[in-house]
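Lab notebook page, bench 4
Experiment: in silico fold of construct C2
Operator: M.H.
Input chain length: 242 residues
Purpose: comparison with the prior construct
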Amino acid sequence: MIFLLRIIAVTIFAVVMFVFGCGYCLLSPRNPKNVHNVGRYFCKMARILGIKLELRYAEGADDVGASIYVANHQNNYDLFTVSGAIMPRTVTVGKKSLIWMPLFGQLYWLTGNILIDRANRSRAAGTISQIVEKIKQLQVSVWMFPEGTRSRGRGLLPFKTGAFHAAIGAQVPVVPIVCSSTDHVKMNRWDNGVVIVEVMPPVSTEGYTKEDVRKLSDQCRTMMENKLTELNVEASQRSAKK
């Protein structure tokens, strides 16, 4: 019964977000502010899924300026958890095929996100230049998932270097964002416990060149892996006490 009720709730939510979200974005299509506004509404769905979502921000996180945000990518629940941490004037990078996803795809495009063709290596490489140009011209931040795919309970996967090439190219900091595990979340369970999303302090790219990309990637991954372990322990302990 819980599973059925949640499926109905998610379906209704998706339709409402599509209609009103697209209507709102059509007033200012592909405006960088749209992603932040829509993301804040999506994270409210966490409560319906039985998740007690806690968002944490490092001191001064709202005053970093244009940045590359890198977050761990677990599963479809990311849409309702890490979306709450999207900062103003931030756009995301997703697969071009997303635009064909019913309801979500059209909203994703209208909110101003960047779509790339991962099947075409030359276009994907050119996308890094486009990201750098967009950051410099519009003073926006870009949100990326450096793992490149959903981890699905496998921990933090190896990082691809695109996000770090973009950060060094634009000479903006990298801001790691970590979400505790949502592998335990079940649609047929009433209480899915605590999930913590933390925006970490920025990592400066000052003085870095393209030769330092792997060093920057490894540095951020180590920080995120340690934080993920820490958050998983805390979230698990707090969920058990409920």
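Observations: DSSP finds six helices and seven strands in the chain. The mean pLDDT is 91.
Next step: discuss at group meeting.
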